[in-house]
């Protein structure tokens, strides 16, 4: 493959391999990086009847996945990640593996499917029989009982919402967690959770490495908000967008059944408005979608109130979708509770749906021009609590199996996820360095604006300046890793790279 030397990548944790023509591999850590002379074993999958029909059941050790797939003739090949999948040689003997699984942070459709498939993957593909569930998130490592997991125990759990292991926010105590891992003789740790959880997983990995333990740490990214960068999308997102349609439909039915009806639907999305954007695009009944990434204003020309008034005059009703973190600055002016935090340190957001509904009602009451009839629907926790749909179930299976293959092959300190459709092992620092956000100067947001016909709440000048800024940012990147033209998967924000 013609790989060159090993570089630092500007980050002491980075394991970067440079190749020809601007090829960069951002590799993940391996147990052999800090434990010398580890024995390897042949992969038990070789004797698995299900896999023996597959021609190439092992991933080539040199296979990597390109982050940038839209390229120009002379552009460098850019950043790559190690391809996920089974390796010919593994670093654990089946009988020696003692695995554990933990789920942390907010609920998300598909958590139980990931748990199920990690357990079944370990049992059926690798003959591993010792798998523990950690009860109630990170603090469960040192404060709660563990739950033995077998294929029989997890057989039906993918049909249920939530997580059979329980979850929590806060309570991350690195040394107590690693003490517990060491005391219990656990040597594979599967950590399912969002950005906060992956930060926690990263420090657990660092501590394990510092202590020189032969323990593989694998992260499975969970976020209903789709706010994790690098990966194409997060599990549960598809289910959430689908389920949101039911709330939007209800809001539409309510709104169109009365004179000057307004249906308001709040959807999740603390910092990233992907659920609101995709649910709006899918529905076609939404007249306005408000997300955290696109500031808006209420009063005056081009403002929300003017748009609502025009829409009611034209159409007699309207539907508004708002993401929970939208309009934060506006909201903060009227409500003084924006500084509260949850146990994990996430900002606690007051109910933006209620606020926007009351603001609209007050405005039209003051105006005495139009008597509106507004119904507010908050389906957020109902959406989050359902089981994953078919497509998310398959996706969760792939994530879980990739994690198992990676840990068995001795990789550690990694998160799994699809990059341009190919499952990859991504170093923790890449996942936690920034959030994935909707880029409002990209074509997907333009599609949304053209489908709802809502104002952009930006003057033409602002948009042009933003576009120039983003082009400047992307040109500054050494490998041009973020392609602003790529709209095939979720758009990635360049603002914080
Ligand atoms: N920077 C961090 N270092 C260590 N642990 C963290 C960090 N941020 C969050 N965590 C832990 O990760 C878990 C989940 O985080 P949270 O932000 O609530 O959800 P999510 O992982 O879904 O974003 C919590 O137990 C929290 O204490
Ligand atoms: O009420 P909770 O449990 O704190 O959850 C609310 C938050 O959880 C989420 O659904 C997901 O957030 P995380 O992925 O960070 O857990 C957010 O959209 C929402 O703000
Ligand atoms: Mg989070």
TrEMBL record:
EC number in record: 2.7.1.11
Residues carrying the site annotation Important for substrate specificity: 196
Matches recorded under Pfam families: PFK (PF00365)
Catalytic activity: beta-D-fructose 6-phosphate + ATP = beta-D-fructose 1,6-bisphosphate + ADP + H(+)
Superkingdom field: Eukaryota
Regulation: Allosterically activated by AMP.
GO BP: any one term: fructose 6-phosphate metabolic process
Phosphofructokinase domain location: 100-405
Subcellular location: Cytoplasm
Annotated binding of substrate, by residue: 223-225, 268-270, 324, 381-384
GO terms for MF: 6-phosphofructokinase activity; ATP binding; metal ion binding
Binding-site residues, Mg(2+): 195
SUPFAM superfamilies (alphabetical): Phosphofructokinase (SSF53784)
GO cellular component, one term: cytosol
UniProt entry keywords in alphabetical sequence: Allosteric enzyme, ATP-binding, Cytoplasm, Glycolysis, Kinase, Magnesium, Metal-binding, Nucleotide-binding, Transferase
Active site annotation, chain numbering: 225 (proton acceptor)
Keyword hit for Transferase: yes
InterPro entries per the UniProt record, alphabetical: ATP_PFK, PFKA, Phosphofructokinase_dom, PKF_sf, PyroP-dep_PFK_TP0108
PANTHER family (alphabetical): ATP-DEPENDENT 6-PHOSPHOFRUCTOKINASE 1
HAMAP family: Phosphofructokinase_II_X
Assembly information from the UniProt record: Homotetramer.
Name listed for the protein in its UniProt record: ATP-dependent 6-phosphofructokinase
Organism: Rhamnella rubrinervis
Classification lineage: Eukaryota, Viridiplantae, Streptophyta, Embryophyta, Tracheophyta
Gene that specifies this protein: PFK
């Amino acid at each position: 493959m013609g790989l060159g030397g090993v570089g630092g990548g500007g980050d002491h944790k980075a394991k970067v391999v440079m190749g020809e023509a601007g090829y960069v591999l951002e590799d993940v850590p391996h147990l052999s990086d800090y434990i010398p002379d580890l024995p390897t074993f042949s992969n038990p999958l070789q004797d698995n009847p299900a896999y023996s029909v597959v021609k190439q059941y092992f991933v080539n050790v040199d296979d990597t996945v390109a982050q940038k797939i839209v390229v120009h003739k002379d552009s460098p090949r850019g950043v790559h990640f190690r391809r996920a999948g089974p390796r010919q040689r593994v670093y654990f003997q089946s009988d020696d593996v003692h695995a554990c699984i933990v789920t942390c942070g907010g609920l998300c459709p598909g958590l139980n499917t990931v748990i199920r498939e990690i357990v079944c993957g370990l049992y059926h593909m690798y003959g591993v029989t010792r798998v523990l569930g950690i009860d109630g998130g990170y603090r469960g490592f040192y404060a709660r009982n563990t739950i033995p997991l077998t294929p029989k125990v997890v057989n039906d759990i993918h049909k249920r919402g939530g997580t059979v292991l329980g979850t929590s926010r806060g309570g991350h105590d690195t040394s107590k967690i690693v003490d517990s891992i060491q005391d219990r003789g656990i040597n594979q740790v599967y950590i399912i959770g969002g950005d906060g959880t992956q930060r926690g997983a990263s420090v657990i990995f660092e501590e394990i490495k510092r202590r020189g333990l032969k323990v593989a740490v694998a992260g499975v990214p969970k976020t209903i908000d789709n706010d994790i960068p690098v990966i194409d999308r997060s599990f549960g997102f598809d289910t959430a967008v689908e389920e949101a349609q039911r709330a939007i439909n209800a809001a539409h039915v309510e709104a169109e059944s009365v004179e000057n009806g307004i249906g308001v639907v709040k959807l999740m999305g603390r910092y990233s408005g992907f659920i609101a954007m995709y649910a709006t695009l899918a529905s076609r009944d939404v007249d306005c979608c408000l997300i955290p990434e696109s500031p808006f204003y209420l009063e005056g020309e081009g403002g929300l109130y003017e748009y609502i008034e025009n829409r009611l005059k034209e159409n007699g009703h309207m539907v508004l979708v708002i993401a929970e973190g939208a309009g934060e600055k506006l909201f903060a002016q009227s409500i003084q509770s924006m500084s509260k935090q949850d146990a994990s340190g996430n900002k606690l957001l007051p109910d933006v749906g209620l606020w926007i509904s009351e603001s609209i009602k007050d405005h039209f009451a003051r105006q005495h021009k139009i008597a509106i009839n507004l119904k507010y629907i908050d389906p957020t926790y109902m959406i989050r609590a359902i089981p994953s749909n078919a497509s998310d179930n398959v996706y969760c299976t792939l994530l879980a199996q990739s994690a198992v293959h990676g840990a068995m092959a001795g990789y550690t300190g990694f998160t799994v996820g699809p990059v341009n459709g190919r499952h990859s092992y991504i170093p923790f620092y890449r996942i936690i360095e920034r959030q994935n956000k909707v880029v409002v100067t990209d074509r997907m947001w333009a599609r949304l604006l053209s489908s709802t016909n809502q104002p952009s709440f930006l003057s033409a000048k602002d948009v042009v300046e933003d576009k120039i800024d983003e082009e400047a940012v992307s040109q500054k990147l050494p490998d041009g890793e973020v392609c602003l033209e790529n709209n095939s998967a979720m758009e990635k924000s360049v603002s914080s790279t």
